[in-house]
Design brief:
This protein has 169 residues and is mainly alpha-helical. It is 49% helix and 5% strand. It has helices at residues 5-18, 28-35, 39-51, 76-84, 108-124, 127-148; strands at residues 55-58, 64-67. The two termini are 14 Å apart.
């Protein structure tokens, strides 16, 4: 099981929006820059996020995207499942299509436990908590870069991460 690129970008957008004061909006161009996604692909992700009730889209001069719910009520699990659907490690784990050998299979309980652990970890990671961590990390990064005499805009990042992009599931 691998989290899709679309879900990864959706989580990035949610963390960025959660780190802003409540009710703040960002335009698509800002989200493209912050998420390091291509505009065309992020547009599809944003549409899915609006349809799933994660964010709200506003048109006009004061338009943009904002969180549809308080950041404390949205987890990474909510975002991933809104974009990718329910988490399944394989066919025999509950919630998937099933396997007739699951009762006699020695590894079946391991798959179930692994799925439950992943769901628990992703469910505990709220956007509010991640936004606080992001602000802390950014503050430290800015301080460290300032001590080196550089700003974050002067640091080059490898942003060639568009492999795997395509249509959403």
């Amino acid at each position: 099981m691998q989290i899709t690129r679309a879900a990864d970008y959706a989580v990035r957008v949610m963390v960025h929006l959660a780190s802003l004061p409540p009710g703040s909006r960002l335009q698509k161009s800002e989200l493209v820059e912050l998420s390091e996604a291509t505009e065309s692909f992020l547009s599809k992700v944003l549409q899915r996020m609006v349809a799933q009730g994660l964010i709200t889209s506003w048109r006009g001069g004061g338009g943009g995207f904002e969180l549809a719910q308080p950041a404390s009520q949205v987890s990474v699990l909510n975002v991933v499942e809104a974009i990718d659907g329910p988490i399944h490690l394989n066919l025999c784990v509950p919630g998937a299509s099933g396997c007739e050998r699951s009762l006699a299979c020695a590894v079946h309980p391991v798959w179930v436990e692994a799925r439950e652990a992943l769901i628990k970890v992703l469910g505990r990671a709220t956007m509010n908590r991640l936004a606080r961590k992001r602000r802390t990390v950014q503050g430290a990064s800015t301080s460290e870069l300032g001590a080196l005499g550089r700003t974050s805009g002067e640091i080059k990042h490898d942003t060639n991460d568009d492999t795997g992009e395509g249509s959403l599931p």
